[in-house]
Amino acid sequence: MDLPPRVSRRTFLGGAAATAGMLSLSPVEFARWTAAGSPLAALPQGRRRQSEDEWDSYAKLHFNENPYGPPDSVMQAMQHAFKFANRYGYPDGDILQAITDLHGVRPENVVLGAGSGELLDVVGLAYLTDNDKRVVGSDPSYGSVYQQATSIKADAIKVPLLDDYRQDIPGLIAATKKHYRNTGFIYLCNPNNPTGRIVTKREIQRLLDEIPEDVPVLIDEAYHHFVEDGDYGTSIPHVLDGRPVIVTRTFSKIAALAGMRLGYAITTPEIARRLQAHQTGTINALVKWAGAAALKDTAAQAHVKQVTLDLRKKAMADLHSLGFATIPSETNFFMVHLKRPVQPVIEEFQKRKVLVGRPFPPMTEHLRVSVGTADEMARFAKAFREIFPGGATGGSND
Amino acid sequence: MDLPPRVSRRTFLGGAAATAGMLSLSPVEFARWTAAGSPLAALPQGRRRQSEDEWDSYAKLHFNENPYGPPDSVMQAMQHAFKFANRYGYPDGDILQAITDLHGVRPENVVLGAGSGELLDVVGLAYLTDNDKRVVGSDPSYGSVYQQATSIKADAIKVPLLDDYRQDIPGLIAATKKHYRNTGFIYLCNPNNPTGRIVTKREIQRLLDEIPEDVPVLIDEAYHHFVEDGDYGTSIPHVLDGRPVIVTRTFSKIAALAGMRLGYAITTPEIARRLQAHQTGTINALVKWAGAAALKDTAAQAHVKQVTLDLRKKAMADLHSLGFATIPSETNFFMVHLKRPVQPVIEEFQKRKVLVGRPFPPMTEHLRVSVGTADEMARFAKAFREIFPGGATGGSND
């Protein structure tokens, strides 16, 4: 999930989206799309077939998606659910029970959303609309929460990452204590996007121990399923301990259902009710069945994780062999330090039909690369060598 | 679309929905479902297959759905769109352009929603959260707007229907003038649910002529596509005239996509931006393609309309032959006057595996019947004769 840093949801629909034509996305979706510098957004209207061909032609390493699509088990569940396409009330594949079983929580701990993005928006609406409330979080991190804050005229208190690109937990604690009265909630993306680095279990515990107990903490675990590091752990147990923690999960990453829109939050019943009051989206019949099937097909997820991490490690090793440094990653994407401005390099990749991540200021010399298929990664490697013919120490042709 | 009159979205999720287990619906969806007295909601958890069999066994004449499901053209569009199931940004079948082409409006006049239900909620959030703002509308009408008002602690000013069950336009005008300062917006369901009666073009014009010009008017045209009466017309031209009118349309009725979640509002650019700021839902890839295909397949919609109206007229004539009066309908449902309390009759139908509409107080002696397939209507007719063996003048066995 990806949002540009400076697009206001509230203001831009009449402008940019109105000219999108063939891409009738929601404001957030549209922002993601145009942020990636997609060539499609610039095409004239009425050229759907051609633009789909063009879309097909790109290696898509820009949105941290699962490039393989849903596994057979999930596709079958969706095909079955077509029988409910025309219905309001119907058996839904037991999606809620699949979630409560998985996490050992009760139904009142769960808020389903049209992707975890809806839930991040809803937390902002629920906790930042009182007078002068702010979100405290890291910079850079996943931008959706900060953008939502801007759109509802709330401020963000952003704590820079540490020198090793890890999140600064003592800094977040200090900022929260300093602005306690005005802190609507703390946002922690774990593992973090765009860096791929984790916050450890011990660090989460320290954060919760040292902040005032009534400060809500939103912990976005979108990339949870790709982590190998044993020092990492989900924060769902803190919800069961009664802390005002909101853990969000998505089916858009390892479950390959970004276009189908499903995510959920695990939180206290009190917070769940507060969030639901601000929620306007509903979830389609197919993705309810898909989500339940995805949670059951642990073999498919394990396979995607293995293939993805193997390809990530290979790509990072290749870059190291060319003399480039990378940030250690626990996700299905990684950052490589180009030691030069990233924007022209992004454009060079696009010329070679490879879409890579947008700039994430202030990290303007790092390129974020999503891990695609083996073929896509080979196209990335080839393009990289063309753009940097002399490796890290040589010139580039951008 | 159907909501029970007294369920607060804000309060009930921790209660009723938490016990739903297999039916992990949104609050609104869950309310619809339980309101219909569905036997599924009462089943213990973990019995999905059985409950689906039971669901299959009912004639479903309770939610005003299209019983035939999406036509081949729409199914093909959705099958194609599965290639985008794992993606955020993708060609979307030109859904926005299909809508703007159909209505002769510009993209900035359109707000897409996860069903028109999301848009009705959003209008409430946008126009009823200021101090002491109220919605003015008819009673009974589609309850979603009133329920949303209750959940955000706003009031509704409800104007009773006329003796012929038509909406009381002079009454709505008078109520609006009387409460002008406190009127957030006027809600008009046209044709009206649950009665099936229309407001004429001339009446809409009169309403707009006589109310203060700055009062927003939300006109819900969910059942637009079933109308035959030449005195009816869409209110979209009033948007183009610059009036603060919001017309909502849904793909949940004639387009048979209720479970896929797509609707839209046509309104002024200013109102569109205000609505979008309160919207948290997003729309899935499949229904974008489905919606565009549905708008193009006018033959399929014409066929559904014809079959549905033929079956409705036949059912109503049958009831007349038994001595029962019906309310004239311009929709895919109708009301029959039972001359006795409707709730026990609903339960008798359910025993016979026929789901019919819930009670719509204060019309507690009218039964709302959605028009199903020919087979479902035959099952309804058979059950009706069993429940009322003596016709309208005889006793019933309830």
Description:
The structure is a homodimer of 398-residue chains. Chain A has 398 residues and is α/β, with parallel strands linked by helices. Chain A has 2 domains: 149 residues, Alpha-Beta Complex (Aspartate Aminotransferase, domain 1), CATH 3.90.1150.10; 225 residues, Aspartate Aminotransferase, domain 2. Helices cover 39% and strands 14% of the residues of chain A. Chain A is built from 15 helices and 12 strands. The interface between A and B is large, with 97 and 97 residues.
Biggest interface, CB < 8 A: A-B, 97 and 97 residues
Number of helices of chain A: 15
Largest sheet of chain A: 7 strands, mixed
Oligomeric state of shown chains? homodimer
* CATH hierarchy class name of the largest domain in chain A: Alpha Beta
CATH architecture of the largest domain in chain A: 3-Layer(aba) Sandwich
Query: In percent terms, what proportion of residues of chain A is strand?
Result: 5-15%
Number of strands of chain A: 12
Count of distinct structural domains of chain A: 2
Taking strands numbered 1, 2, ... along the chain, how are they ordered across the largest sheet of chain A? Answer: 2-8-7-6-5-3-4
- State mean pLDDT of chain A (0 to 100 scale): 89
- The CATH homologous superfamily of the largest domain in chain A: Type I PLP-dependent aspartate aminotransferase-like (Major domain)
| Helix and strand composition category of chain A | alpha/beta
Terminal residue distance of chain A:
27 Å
Could you tell me the CATH topology label of the largest domain in chain A: Aspartate Aminotransferase, domain 2
Query: Which regions of chain A contain 5 or more consecutive residues with pLDDT less than 50?
Result: 1-50
